[in-house]
Design a protein that fits this description.
Strand content of chain A: under 5%
Oligomer: heterodimer
Shape of chain A: globular
Shape of chain B: globular
Number of helices of chain A: 13
Strand content of chain B: under 5%
Strand order of the largest sheet of chain A: 1-2
Distance between the termini of chain A: 33 Å
Order of helices and strands of chain B: HHHHEHEHHHHHHH
Mean pLDDT of chain B: 91
Order of helices and strands of chain A: HHHHHHEEHHHHHHH
Low-confidence stretches of chain A: none
Radius of gyration of chain B: 19 Å
Largest sheet of chain B: 2 strands, antiparallel
Structural class of chain A: mainly alpha
Number of strands of chain A: 2
Strand order of the largest sheet of chain B: 1-2
Chain lengths: 377, 302
């Protein structure tokens, strides 16, 4: 009898990438983001505007003054919440792209609570945010049920449900018995398709205020939630289970996890995050719901979540960047350049971050092969 | 009454045609395994491209062709990034859509454009058939391509070798790969075809139906086309009837209030999406999607 061959000990950790690897990766990413920005600059230039003016205005409008920094932070809050939720679903291998609809349902639930409950601020705000989470979670939960009970692809499910949500809110703010605003009788005004404005007690607390700006608590709520969810995903057993399910759900089932339960929870939770984003949007800046309520925060947050992909912490800097782009875009109109260019930049950055990882993967594969060849000679 | 029906039929078919071109393209892409959500962007890009090119060339026909070319260019981005260097196709689709929305809205607001428009064509004799005559034979020029497109796509998918290989690639890419079909290449080709069809849809919409461009003018029609493909269970004739149904719903929404009926506009707008969700959830056996739909292909990974 021969002794079984000695196995090499299994390494406790995967080898960490070296400093040089990080530097190369960073270089690639910076270079490709620069290319993306140049493409947008080129677009501005060929339509006869001055790219440098655009850049200067954007910087001025996003970090140039106290008011513009506040605008950036207020925009970043819902974007960050949506992005953090996107990452949770992505960890479990699910792509939620219906955040626009989940924001709407969050906003509708929150406005219903904010208008009907007569509570002091410290009680009312948490209740509203809870209702918002419930609304967003419910809307994503439907997609989760369709996905895990009937096998409907969650990408299509969440997307179609968000189109349903657009019409649902449009219906609700056109029906007096639902959310449409009340008009004082005999005033001669007709009710607009929007909800009543929230009472002061339902506004998010002000952190900083001045002429033309008001920083609300939203960004603090968003950063705290993003940090907590990053901790949960990266450092807890639940986060590990999510990751296992996301990487290989058959393997997950073999080790006794329930991919259905874990996946459905993740998808619902990511909807709840978007719902809270709707609540923050409502209590922070919008104060009422109308058919354009979500105003692209869902898409922008989704883009940030897609950039971050597997790293839940990196949503924070990118959410600030996208908030800044949005704030800068808001003042672009004054220069006569259409703010649509901001959307182009936002989309290009996603590609600019996704492409280098492909080339880096190829490079790593090449390096590994050449090392093996060296070893075999 | 007959006039009303004829009017509604005409606008239903007119509105369905845009959906139809797009849905036929999407059908080919989906049978090859790509759930191509960037079709919305492809349509919008060609809608703008056709308007701009017709402005430059002074010809609606050249504008139409160049509009198609723009959509094929967008398809090239989707095809090569998703099925050459393997970026997630849905992520890419979202990015492409937002990129096209941003770019076209930006260019439209920065450039002065006066587009050309296609004339109405009327097939003598056939157009006089009561009720459906106007609907089927009195439309703007590109509309008449549907009589070519439907049989062509049917022939491609059901009778051609290329179509058979596409289906192999969409159903079981591993097996197709082993039998010598270049899976990623077939998928890219299917997306190019989808781009060309979406290009017809977008160009027809802008310089045919509407006569000009407006930002985000496709207004989710690309997604309704996707819904029609799912609703039609990936079968040509059922997809065609799906687009007719959804076009009809849109026609009702536009014309019923004018005829004095009160309807719930939101419910009619939402109908295609609801019907599709229900079809996906409860008629999954009848509506079986291609097995590898939406899944990336990497050799050796089952």
């Amino acid at each position: 009898m021969t002794a079984p061959p000695q196995r090499a000990p299994i390494p406790r950790r995967l080898p960490r990438p070296s400093v040089a690897d990080h530097a190369i990766s960073l270089g690639w990413h910076l270079a490709s983001i620069l290319v993306a920005l140049s493409v947008a600059g080129l677009l501005v230039a060929i339509t006869g505007s001055e790219p440098t003016t655009v850049v200067r205005t954007m910087i001025e409008g996003s970090i140039g003054s106290r008011a513009s920094i506040v605008a950036t932070l207020n925009h970043a809050a819902p974007i960050l919440l949506v992005a953090a939720g996107t990452v949770i679903a992505a960890k479990a291998g699910l792509l939620n792209i219906g955040q626009e609809g989940q924001i709407i349902f969050g906003g509708m639930f929150a406005v219903a609570v904010g208008l009907s409950l007569d509570l002091p601020k410290p009680l009312l705000i948490p209740m509203m945010l809870l209702a918002a989470a419930l609304g967003g979670g419910l809307w994503a939960g439907i997609a989760a049920v369709l996905r895990f009970w009937r096998g409907v692809n969650e990408v299509i499910g969440t997307l179609l449900l968000s189109f349903v949500a657009f019409q649902a809110v449009s219906y609700a703010v056109n029906q007096p018995w639902l959310l449409q605003e009340d008009v004082a009788e005999g005033s001669g005004l007709s009710a607009s398709p929007q909800s009543n404005a929230l009472p002061e007690a339902a506004h998010l607390p002000t952190l900083l205020t001045g002429p033309g700006y008001r920083l609300h608590l939203g960004i603090v709520i968003a950063v705290v939630i993003a940090l907590v969810s990053a901790f949960l995903v990266m450092r807890t057993k639940w986060g590990l289970e999510l990751t296992v399910v996301g990487l290989n759900d058959r393997a997950a089932r073999r080790i006794g996890l329930s991919p259905i339960l874990i996946g459905a929870t993740a998808l619902t939770l990511s909807g709840a995050f978007a719902g809270v984003a709707g609540g923050v949007l409502l209590g922070g800046t919008a104060f009422r719901v109308n058919s354009g309520f979500s105003s692209n925060y869902g898409w922008e947050g989704l883009l940030v979540g897609l950039i971050a992909r597997s790293n839940p912490l990196s949503v924070i800097p990118f959410a600030f960047l996208y908030g800044a782009l949005r704030a800068g875009g808001g003042v672009l109109a004054s220069t006569g350049v259409s703010a649509s260019i901001v959307g182009v930049v936002q989309a290009l950055i996603v590609l600019a971050v996704a492409l280098p990882s492909y080339f880096l993967r190829r490079r790593n594969a090449r390096v590994a092969t050449s090392r093996m060849e060296v070893a075999s000679t | 009454m007959i006039d009303d029906i004829s009017l509604i039929a005409e606008s239903a078919v007119r509105l369905a045609a845009t959906l139809l071109f797009a849905a036929l393209g999407e059908l080919v892409a989906e049978r090859a395994g790509t759930l191509n959500i960037s079709i919305e962007g492809m349509m919008l890009s060609s809608a703008f491209g056709a308007v701009y090119a017709s402005h430059l060339t002074g010809s609606a026909y050249l504008g139409f062709l160049l509009g198609m070319a723009v959509a094929v260019l967008v398809a090239a981005i989707q095809a090569n990034l998703a099925h050459r260097i393997q970026i997630n196709q849905f992520v890419l689709g979202i990015v492409v859509n937002l990129l096209v929305i941003g770019t076209t809205s930006f260019l439209w607001s920065e450039i002065d454009i006066t587009p050309e428009r296609f004339p109405m064509w009327r097939v003598p004799g056939l157009a006089s058939i009561p009720v459906v005559g106007d609907a089927l034979f009195h439309q703007r020029a590109p509309f008449f391509l549907i009589y070519l497109a439907i049989p062509l796509v049917w022939w491609i998918l059901e009778r051609s070798r290329w179509g058979l290989e596409l289906q192999a690639v969409g159903e079981n890419p591993q097996a197709a790969d082993v039998s010598g079909i270049d899976v990623l290449r077939r998928r890219r080709q299917a997306i190019y075809f989808c781009g060309a069809m979406a290009g017809i849809a977008g160009s027809y919409l802008s310089i045919g139906l509407i006569g000009t461009f407006t930002p985000e003018m496709t207004a989710l029609r690309g997604f309704i086309a996707i819904a029609a493909v799912i609703f039609g269970g990936w079968v040509v004739w059922r997809v065609v009837s799906g687009t007719l149904l959804f076009g009809g719903v849109e026609a009702l929404r536009v014309s019923l209030p004018a005829l004095g009926f009160t309807i719930n506009a939101q419910l009619l707008i939402v109908a295609p999406y609801l019907v599709t969700l229900i079809a996906m959830a409860f008629f999954a056996r009848r509506n079986r999607p291609p097995k590898a739909l939406g899944k990336p292909f990497e050799r050796g990974i089952a």
